[in-house]
């Protein structure tokens, strides 16, 4: 299968899954509609696709990861809904559409985010009957760890505290490895649980996820300077406007591009070393996609 | 054991548990401190005590429910943190102390709430090793169901939508049975899972939880009229100020007191019928406590 076709199929699969799961919810309408609005918004579905590709390389069936991929994407979406709130980034647009709180109201935005986060744990436990209970427990444990104070929320808090301050590269790395990185590792590690990966496979795949997580964030910072509104769906230069520390602002634009390229090369190499070039095809192309994307 | 002694012991036990679990968290400091501030604030710990008493009446060890009781109390606390935000109830005080967002800032308040909710699922899976994996999965499923759109968040949304409107008694019942009721049923049903209750025991105990949940809310509405700031820890008449529908505003103060008493009597009777008067002692006194409390 071609890479672009794989991306499209993965996106379709997970969006169908999320739509099915969320269509079970109807009341109160504003929460049910808001949850769908926040998740089914044209996202890249990078986290679900990472989960599917990891299942693939481990020889397991994509469908086995559908509930987990959907739940992780819902957690990603809730974090964006809360990030966009007036008290945080105060963003009116995301991917060219009104943010959830602008569309439904601020109180509603808070509750829609809470509902997405809460319901993701329902999906993990309710829609994973094909997995042993012990695997479901491991997945919930990992998810709540990587999405919480020791993961995504921790990174988000450091991000907020760093606004308007000069921070060093170590703080920047901590921030990104937690704010963005943990939720990119999560689908890879969940896929390892679902497919009963060996420790060595898990170690390699987790390292790969760390590296592409880093690459993803460097690229994000570069796009905030070089991208355009139509492609990235938010105002260019918003990091600068919010006085945020970024890779370009700390190590410079050219060094950031160099670091991005080296990081992607390393990610590709460790996967090839473990799984061979043929089986690694999709994960290689995913790493390159992260380097070359324009949105 | 005397009832008051039981309340104190249960409160101490769960507060020690929560303190231990949250003391594992240190970074970012504002989130770690904020989580403790929001939970360890002198609450009544009604939900944990309900869980302990249900384990007791089923002949199971209180310690077996410690992680679950702590997690449920953290979910209750997160909901209060988000309820108090400016976009929702905009309350500056709770139990006589500054609300979490007033103490730590609004963005921080949102993230502290998110972190409490997320970490509660970590505790349910990480600290329940003494339970079979299948029981942990059931507990997570129930918790995410009762705390989410079909439970607490659903009720909260209807509450917000009802402000400044005349609502009927059915809508009021829906609102409370979801906003408050589900999280009072949750510890009872979790205790039934932990103690492997029979279906009949579970049915009785769930019905009891429904009834005292209703009683709790009627009493809350009455206290908002008849209580005093020092006891209830928030301004008296704040429901009126927010133009909220309450039992007294819909059926009148005297009828509310009558309904409260009848509800508590029914709760006591069904427990006595199932478990006999001796074993029912604590749950009987808990129902009476809810009727007679002044805070």
UniProtKB/TrEMBL annotation, chains A, B:
Q: Which InterPro entries match?
A: Isoprenoid_synthase_dom_sf, Polyprenyl_synt, Polyprenyl_synt_CS, Prenyl_diphosphate_synthase
This protein's record includes keyword Cell cycle? no
Q: Does the keyword Magnesium apply?
A: yes
Gene Ontology cellular-component terms listed: cytoplasm
User: What family is this?
Assistant: Belongs to the FPP/GGPP synthase family.
Which named protein is this? Polyprenyl synthetase family protein
For this UniProt record, the keywords arranged alphabetically read as follows: Isoprene biosynthesis, Magnesium, Metal-binding, Transferase
Name any cofactors this protein relies on: Mg(2+)
Pfam families cross-referenced by the UniProt entry: polyprenyl_synt
Q: Name one process (GO BP) from the record.
A: terpenoid biosynthetic process
Tell me the organism. Fusobacterium hominis
Q: Which GO terms describe its molecular function?
A: metal ion binding; prenyltransferase activity
């Amino acid at each position: 299968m071609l890479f672009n076709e794989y991306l499209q199929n993965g996106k379709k699969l997970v969006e169908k899954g999320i739509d099915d799961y969320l269509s079970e919810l109807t009341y109160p309408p504003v929460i049910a509609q808001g949850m769908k609005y926040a998740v089914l918004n044209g996202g890249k579905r990078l986290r679900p696709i990472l989960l599917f590709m990891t299942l693939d390389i481990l020889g397991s069936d994509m469908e086995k990861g559908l509930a987990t991929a959907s739940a992780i994407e819902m957690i990603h979406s809730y974090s964006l809904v809360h990030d966009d709130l007036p008290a945080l980034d105060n963003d009116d647009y995301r991917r060219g559409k009104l943010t959830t709180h602008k569309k439904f109201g601020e109180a509603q935005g808070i509750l829609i985010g809470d509902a997405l986060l809460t319901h993701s744990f329902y999906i993990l436990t309710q829609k994973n009957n094909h997995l042993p209970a012990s695997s479901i427990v491991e997945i919930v444990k990992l998810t709540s760890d990587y999405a919480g104070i020791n993961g995504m929320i921790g990174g988000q808090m450091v991000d907020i505290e760093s606004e308007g301050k000069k921070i060093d590269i170590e703080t920047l790395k901590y921030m990104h490895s937690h704010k963005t990185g943990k939720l990119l590792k999560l689908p890879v590690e969940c896929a390892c649980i679902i497919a009963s990966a060996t420790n060595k496979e898990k170690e390699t795949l987790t390292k790969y996820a760390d590296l592409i997580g880093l690459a993803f964030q460097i690229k994000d910072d570069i796009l905030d300077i070089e991208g355009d509104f139509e492609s990235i769906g938010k105002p260019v230069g918003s990091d600068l406007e919010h006085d945020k520390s970024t890779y370009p602002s700390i190590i410079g634009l050219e060094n950031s591009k160099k670091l991005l390229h080296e990081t992607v090369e390393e990610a590709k190499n460790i996967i090839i070393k473990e799984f061979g070039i043929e089986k690694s095809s999709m994960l290689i192309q995913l790493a390159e996609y992260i380097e070359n994307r324009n949105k």
